[in-house]
């Protein structure tokens, strides 16, 4: 629907309800990256890697959000 503000709002609500949802963090990170907010995008990547680094979503996050280094 091209409503980035609403998408962020809903995804942040999902974080409160399901803090272990790596796919949600990845989607949120992609939104931030598309907006040019690399600080928040990197924060989402760090969050994903903190608990899902060996999960396939961790590899996908590294590819799509970039590396922290």
List the helices and strands and how they pair.
Elements (H helix, E strand, L loop, with lengths): L3 H14 L4 H14 L2 H15 L3 H10 L4
Notes on the protein architecture:
This protein is mainly alpha-helical. The chain has a single domain (4-65), classed as Serine Threonine Protein Phosphatase 5, Tetratricopeptide repeat (Alpha Horseshoe). Helix content is 77%, strand content 0%. The longest helix has 15 residues, at 38-52. The chain is globular and about 30 Å long.
The helix-strand sequence is HHHH
Mean pLDDT level: 93
Largest sheet: none
Task: Supply the CATH superfamily name.
Answer: Tetratricopeptide repeat domain
- What is the helix fraction of residues, given as a range? over 70%
CATH top level class name:
Mainly Alpha
Helix/strand-derived category reads mainly alpha
How many beta-strand elements? 0
Unreliably modeled segments: none
The number of domains: 1
Name of the CATH architecture: Alpha Horseshoe
> What is the CATH T-level topology?
Serine Threonine Protein Phosphatase 5, Tetratricopeptide repeat
Globally, the shape reads globular
* Count of alpha and pi helical runs: 4
End-to-end separation in angstroms reads: 34 Å
Radius of gyration: 11 Å
Approximate strand percentage: under 5%
């Amino acid at each position: 629907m091209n409503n980035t503000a609403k998408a962020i709002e809903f995804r942040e609500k999902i974080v409160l309800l399901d803090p272990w949802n790596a796919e949600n963090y990845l989607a949120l990170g992609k939104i931030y990256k598309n907006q040019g907010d690399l600080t928040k995008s990197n924060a989402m990547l760090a969050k994903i890697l903190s608990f899902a680094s060996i999960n396939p979503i961790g590899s996908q996050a590294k590819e799509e959000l970039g590396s922290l280094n």
